[in-house]
Amino acid sequence: MSLSRSPSPNRGGGWSSPGLTTPYDNMSGTASPRKGYGDLQMNGGIGSSNVTWANAKAKSDQVNGYPSFSTRNNGFFSRHARQISRSLPSFVRGAEQEKLGRGRWYPRNGSKAGRILGFIGRTIWRLRLRLLITLSLILAVIVFYVTRESNGRLSYRPRLKKPTAMHRAYRRASLLGGGSQFVIILAANQGGGVMEWKGPREWAIERDSVRNKKKYAKKWGYNLEIVDMSTKKRYAHEWRESWEKVDTIRKCMRKYPKAQWFWWMDLNTFIMEPSYTLQKHIFNDLSSNTYRDINDYNPLHITHPFNDTKLDPEALSPNGDGKVSSIDLIIPQDCAGFNLGSFFIRSSTWTDRLLDVWWDPVGYEQKHMEWEHKEQDALEHLYINQPWIRGHTAFIPQRKINSFPAGACGQNGEDKRIHYKEADRDFVVNMAGCEWGRDCWGEMYNFRELSNKLNRTPWEKFKDGISDRIKAMKAKPEGKEGKA
């Protein structure tokens, strides 16, 4: 049977389409896949012969298994919610647009600045992993170079150890930076307190010199031993004025048994280039930075090597055994011979033997009236007369660790091998002999200011450049007014 339109129930009962209202409840092949309504009893026994709209709807709900529910707009507020909401006042424009963009961030009204900020934000979000790694590396570098500055006060008393920064620990480690292998010995308070009273200039020289060595040793992880050289008698029968250097070196070697090289520095020395490390400047290539044959520069005119044929081949060789490992003493030479204002000595069995002979009281008693430069002349005497000393002694160009100002060794004018050169950025300057007719404080001050100028940071150079330009601009009007 074909239907001209879809079947639909009538509210008064029955179906609008023909053939759907029939007394045959159990007929097969009906249009509905369900059983007939007459087989079910609902609402007090209403049968299939009296099918109404309410009965059909209730029966359909039971067959489908869905619970009953309230129809839409069943209640006053549900039916009139839209009308009530429209009658309320509106405080925000574009409320519907705000709902569409909820949870999102939009630029400021589409402005150019807003678009740029949005682009930056999206780029950062895409590169967040790389940025996190980069920031972690920057933080690690900052932590590595965090330092604790000391109060800068001069004191000879031992202090409690403070936590060491990571970069200092790295530079001090023997297997990494190797700074713990070096000890700087600085002679301080020479003659003060007993033989003579110090004046303001002497205290200023000592303050600047000590501060300079502390800063350098702290930067590269070296050990610093500041020795109080106050004149006092250790033994009444063998007091040796200005011979404390030998005994002090022996004490330091006992105090630092794991150190390898000891660098003696007089108080009148000043490190001009704190960026130089001893390793790179000297010890990484010791063979090319030193020479064994004193004939390369021989102001004392010492005969070298020995002419005695009974000596072994090493003693007869001008370069000894030629091995870097056999070098135990490194000294510079000035215009008058050996200079011990700045020199290196290594801890070894040979050094113990040298210090014993060097400190021998018999030699002092017999020769101290002849040796004008005391322990320095004593070492020259040993080098000239003892073959076993030459094989372990090396010389270093003076300007490498002990440059002189123009006033020292200036009898023959400026000497390129001795005097300080600003253009070459010499490592150390030694105001040797400044107490004899020269201004020690003036020289120390000038070299200190020059070192600060040469080692400025880029930011300090920038600030100084601006300051110089301002001063030049102020000087021009003053010059014009003077001419007028």
Quickly describe the structure.
The protein is α/β, with parallel strands linked by helices. It has helices at residues 53-64, 76-87, 95-100, 112-126, 128-144, 166-172, 200-220, 244-255, 278-281, 286-289, 313-316, 349-358, 361-367, 375-385, 387-390, 398-401, 440-454, 458-483; strands at residues 182-188, 223-228, 261-265, 269-271, 329-331, 333-334, 337-338, 342-346, 393-395, 428-430.
Mean pLDDT: 77
Number of strands: 10
The best one-word shape is elongated
H-E order: HHHHHHEHEHEEHHHEEEEHHHHEHEHH
**N-to-C CA distance:** 128 Å
Protein described:
By secondary structure, this protein is α/β, with parallel strands linked by helices. It is 39% helix and 8% strand. The protein contains 18 helices and ten strands. It has helices at residues 53-64, 76-87, 95-100, 112-126, 128-144, 166-172, 200-220, 244-255, 278-281, 286-289, 313-316, 349-358, 361-367, 375-385, 387-390, 398-401, 440-454, 458-483, and strands spanning 182-188, 223-228, 261-265, 269-271, 329-331, 333-334, 337-338, 342-346, 393-395, 428-430. Strands 2-1-3-8-5-9 form a six-stranded mixed sheet, sandwiched between helices. The chain has a two-stranded antiparallel ribbon with strand order 4-10. Strands 6-7 form a two-stranded antiparallel sheet. Residues 23-49 and 149-163 have low confidence and may be disordered.
